[in-house]
């Protein structure tokens, strides 16, 4: 049973690398970079010895009393330095409006450290700020200037010594601090002016129109350009942005380079895409774009991901897209070339839980992107909510401390400081591959939108804002005083830029797009289906015998040096018997065959979820764990050509589903799947489902092939372990936007996964996956169903062959209940009722159902049977569609509902009541007598059209 092509999975790092240590071991423990060095430096004996050596070297008195006094002074001085490194940000000058009351903490004063009246005494500090010996006055001035200026640094919560030293050196070494050349300063001024004048122009041309302007935060424009410029120098070749509304149009125009005329065209009600593309479109401040910028001869590709009004939802999408692009560029190890940048609002950053979910993913295997730059536009207000009511922590950025991310607080009225912060951020990210946060304190010159009146709720703040000069005015005055520019220089920049805007405004009147922004790059060769029928057609997805047999060997061969669990051994033995006999293929084996065949054909396969490696129901076993040392072996990752990945995710639905959507957004050549632990839990990610999966293509022209696997089925396991809320997905169905399946046959599952990749288009696929059917004796497939010209069946006929003319009642159903119906019907020896399964609910197979109904010439009744309550499940979706098929077939029959009564809870929590209801709904569907009223099931009879 040997296999020379081993694939062992490490717990940390990418799949295929060697693993060291058990899976539960924390590779970051014990913590590196503890405070041992600091503690040692404050040891009186060590300090005294250091002072003795330094005093002798400097020719200072060396009598014991003087040495003791100098050592005591040094200890107090080092404690002062330490406290400024830890808490100096609390006294930093951050608020442009001066409304934030920030008293200097007592422990940052000389009095607290006992230096009152001793300001001119020299102390030994051993090289801090370049000083060996320094007066208290000089030291205090250096600390105040470094840690309490327009930039406040939080970094002493970081455990890694190297990271702390890097940030410390950047702050405390004079040549590393905020310094710009005259050319650099003029470039910063020009960028600020572009940001301001752009908003002014929009405000004049489109009075009262919402634009969610950047007014008050224009320093972000040169700062983001610094990320591009310095990032390019440090190896970045692609930046993927995500941001909400505030300043989005400004970033699109002045950072991303979206043509001004296109944005003006959109303000006038036009579309950036050709009229024949279709889709609903979206408001202009939700849209994204992609472009290239060049700095110093280095080209950087940039894309801004579309974002709905649900703030921060785009965060995991950006991270997932980044991960996919890193894989495409072979950058998953270095994380050097592709950079995610997320731009947040202060209230959303503190208030939205998905922000933490994304931080939680930052260091997790399979989800890491090598660090993200987070830029917080801190307006010091939400919509109308002040910070003291919007969070419980001092800063909106405090959530980032959970992953020990450094935080740079910076005054937004100082564009040099903001640009410096971004320059430092990109250097840190490229060196350490970790998240970092810039918290830019600014203000919102107008209300939440340009038609809002903010003085209703913040009269004092907005009185101050009305009197406060603009960023460009302040910075222009600063450069004039420094002699960097001459009088009138700034006005020249303003006149030149507003002239350009006027030209673009005129050009917008005749602008007409001739190309839609999709199906380029990796999507080349894919397309939008020409019509709904194209999306519904069958496609052969069977595989060759040779590949089938080869995959069988891969799935049943245990490496000689791998000790597997004894129960897993029995599972593998059973699987081997399937391939030997060609019979009894279960759900998990069919799935593995789909995965393996796609990988062999060159596609990627990525599966993630909270327990996806083993499978929630111990059914998948895509990952085998050695019982002696916990090495991980993944059989399917030994296959050639493509790449198979399976990840057990963090305990998150919202963030992880968004991540996988983003991955699929960037990589149509990989089958990307997210699996809920139970289908019910998908509602924790409902925003991603509603805003992105169901509507992303029609709103933003962004196709996506994400697959959602949602365990669904009524087995008496209670309200939270029964229903994947099928009805919610069906309610979202329109315009061939998604596919919804409730599959009961393993081979059909195999084909629907392969069909997902083999067709020339991508649509999200939602599958109600089984639980009890994973091992049901009737839910099996044969070898022939996977081979040759076989394909996915949208409708599965009866397991018992009945003459069409004998069928009196047709029971249509979907999912597990089919097998309950079949077993009961056959036990009762009923010969005039046919049971047909609808395996694909959307797009609904109406034409195929019509053809079946036409053959049943003596049909009297059509029943829809479901396990879910009447107000749940598929009933309200399929009801009229079945009627339409019946009319088209000439029967004029309305369907009858057989199932549970309406209910607020999706299922009962009592096993006995569940079984009573299940037996009753099966009896109703099969027209059997003696159904108890206590079972709470319903049969809704509708008169046919001829009698109506």
UniProtKB/TrEMBL annotation:
Pfam families: E1_dh, OxoGdeHyase_C, Transket_pyr. Keywords: Oxidoreductase, Thiamine pyrophosphate. GO terms for cellular component: cytosol; oxoglutarate dehydrogenase complex. Residues 1-44 are annotated as: Disordered. GO terms for molecular function: oxoglutarate dehydrogenase (succinyl-transferring) activity; thiamine pyrophosphate binding. SMART domains: Transket_pyr. The keyword Disulfide bond does not apply. Its EC number is 1.2.4.2. Gene3D superfamilies: 3.40.50.12470, 3.40.50.970, Multifunctional 2-oxoglutarate metabolism enzyme, C-terminal domain, TPP helical domain. Its cofactor is thiamine diphosphate. GO terms for biological process: tricarboxylic acid cycle. Residues 585-776 form the Transketolase-like pyrimidine-binding domain. E1 component of the 2-oxoglutarate dehydrogenase (OGDH) complex which catalyzes the decarboxylation of 2-oxoglutarate, the first step in the conversion of 2-oxoglutarate to succinyl-CoA and CO(2). Homodimer. Part of the 2-oxoglutarate dehydrogenase (OGDH) complex composed of E1 (2-oxoglutarate dehydrogenase), E2 (dihydrolipoamide succinyltransferase) and E3 (dihydrolipoamide dehydrogenase); the complex contains multiple copies of the three enzymatic components (E1, E2 and E3). PANTHER family: 2-OXOADIPATE DEHYDROGENASE COMPLEX COMPONENT E1, 2-OXOGLUTARATE DEHYDROGENASE. This is 2-oxoglutarate dehydrogenase E1 component. It comes from Parapontixanthobacter aurantiacus.
């Amino acid at each position: 049973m040997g296999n020379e092509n081993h694939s062992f999975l490490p717990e940390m790092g990418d799949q295929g690398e060697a693993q060291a240590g058990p899976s539960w071991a924390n590779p970051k423990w014990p913590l590196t970079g503890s405070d041992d060095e600091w503690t040692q430096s404050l040891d009186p004996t060590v300090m005294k010895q250091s002072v003795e050596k330094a005093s002798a070297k400097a020719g200072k008195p060396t009598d014991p009393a003087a040495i003791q006094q100098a050592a005591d002074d040094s200890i107090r001085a080092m404690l002062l330095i330490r406290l400024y490194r830890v808490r100096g940000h609390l006294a930093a000058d951050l608020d442009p409006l001066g409304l934030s009351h920030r008293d200097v903490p007592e422990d940052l004063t000389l009095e607290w450290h006992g230096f009152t009246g001793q300001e001119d005494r020299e102390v030994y500090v051993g090289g801090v700020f370049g000083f060996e010996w320094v007066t208290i006055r000089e030291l205090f001035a250096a600390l105040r200037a470094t840690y309490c200026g327009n930039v406040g640094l939080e970094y002493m919560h970081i455990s890694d010594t190297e990271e702390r030293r890097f940030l410390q050196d950047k702050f405390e070494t004079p040549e590393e601090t905020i310094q710009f050349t005259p050319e650099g300063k003029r470039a910063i001024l020009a960028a600020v002016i572009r940001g301001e004048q752009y908003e002014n122009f929009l405000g004049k041309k489109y009075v009262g129109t919402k634009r969610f302007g950047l007014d008050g935060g224009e320093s972000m424009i040169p700062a983001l350009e610094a990320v591009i410029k310095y990032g390019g120098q440090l190896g970045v070749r692609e930046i993927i942005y995500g941001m909400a509304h505030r300043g989005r149009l400004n970033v699109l125009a002045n950072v991303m380079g979206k043509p001004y005329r296109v944005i003006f065209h959109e303000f006038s009600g036009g579309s950036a895409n050709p009229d024949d593309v279709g889709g609903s479109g979206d408001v202009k401040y939700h849209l994204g774009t992609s472009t290239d910028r060049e700095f110093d001869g280095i080209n950087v590709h940039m894309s801004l991901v579309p974002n709905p009004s649900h703030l921060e939802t785009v965060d995991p999408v950006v991270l997932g897209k980044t991960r996919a692009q890193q894989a495409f560029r072979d950058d998953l190890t270095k994380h050097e070339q592709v950079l995610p940048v997320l731009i947040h609002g202060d209230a959303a950053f503190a208030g939205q839980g998905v922000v933490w979910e994304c931080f939680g993913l930052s260091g997790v295997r399979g989800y890491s992107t090598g660090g993200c730059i987070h830029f917080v536009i801190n307006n010091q207000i939400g919509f109308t909510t002040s910070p003291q009511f919007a969070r419980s922590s001092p800063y909106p950025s405090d959530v980032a401390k959970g992953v020990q991310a450094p935080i740079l607080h910076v005054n937004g009225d100082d564009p040099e400081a903001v640009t410096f912060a971004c320059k430092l951020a990109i250097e840190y990210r490229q060196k350490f591959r970790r998240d970092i946060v810039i918290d830019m304190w600014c203000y919102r010159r107008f209300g939440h939108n340009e038609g809002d009146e903010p003085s209703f709720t913040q009269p004092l703040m907005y009185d101050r804002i009305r009197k406060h000069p603009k960023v460009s005015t302040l910075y222009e005055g600063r450069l004039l005083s420094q002699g960097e520019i001459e009088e009138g220089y700034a006005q020249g920049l303003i006149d030149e830029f507003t002239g350009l805007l006027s030209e673009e405004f005129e050009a917008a009147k005749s602008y007409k797009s001739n190309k839609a922004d999709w199906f380029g790059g990796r999507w080349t060769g894919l397309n939008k289906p020409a019509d709904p029928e194209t999306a519904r057609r069958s496609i052969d997805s069977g595989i060759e015998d040779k590949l089938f047999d080869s995959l069988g060997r891969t799935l049943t061969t245990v490496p000689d040096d791998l000790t597997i669990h004894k129960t897993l051994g029995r599972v593998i033995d059973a699987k081997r018997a399937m391939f030997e006999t060609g019979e009894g293929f279960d759900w998990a084996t069919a799935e593995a065959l789909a995965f393996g065949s796609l990988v062999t054909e060159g596609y990627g396969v990525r599966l993630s979820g909270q327990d996806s490696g083993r499978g929630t129901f111990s059914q998948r076993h895509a990952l085998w764990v050695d019982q002696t040392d916990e090495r991980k072996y993944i059989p399917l990752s030994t296959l050639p050509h493509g790449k198979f990945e399976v990840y057990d995710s963090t305990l998150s639905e919202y963030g992880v589903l968004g991540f996988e959507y983003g991955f699929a957004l960037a990589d149509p050549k990989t089958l990307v799947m997210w699996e809920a632990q139970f289908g019910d839990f998908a509602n924790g990610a409902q925003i991603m489902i509603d805003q992105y999966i169901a509507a992303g293509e029609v709103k933003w022209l962004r196709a996506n092939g994400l697959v959602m696997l949602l365990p669904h089925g009524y087995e008496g396991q209670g309200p939270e372990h029964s229903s994947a809320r099928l009805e919610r997905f069906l309610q979202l169905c329109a315009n061939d936007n998604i596919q919804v399946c409730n599959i009961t046959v393993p081979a059909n599952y195999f084909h629907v996964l392969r069909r997902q990749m083999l067709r020339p288009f991508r649509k999200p696929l939602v599958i109600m996956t089984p639980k009890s059917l994973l091992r049901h004796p009737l839910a099996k497939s044969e070898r022939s169903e996977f081979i040759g010209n076989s394909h996915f069946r949208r409708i599965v006929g009866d397991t018992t062959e009945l003459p069409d003319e004998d069928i009196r009642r047709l029971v249509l159903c979907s999912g597990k209940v089919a097998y309950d119906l079949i077993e009961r019907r056959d036990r009762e020896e009923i010969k005039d009722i046919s049971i047909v399964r609808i395996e694909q609910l959307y797009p609904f197979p109406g034409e195929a159902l019509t053809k079946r109904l036409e053959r049943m010439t003596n049909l009297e009744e059509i029943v829809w049977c479901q396990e879910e309550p009447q107000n749940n499940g598929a009933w309200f979706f399929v009801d009229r569609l079945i009627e339409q098929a019946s009319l088209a077939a000439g029967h004029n029959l309305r369907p009858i509902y057989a199932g549970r009564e309406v209910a607020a809870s999706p299922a009962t929590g009592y096993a006995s009541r569940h079984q009573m209801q299940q037996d009753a709904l099966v009896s109703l569907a099969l027209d059997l007598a003696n159904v108890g009223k206590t079972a709470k099931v319903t049969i809704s009879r509708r008169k046919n059209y001829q009698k109506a």
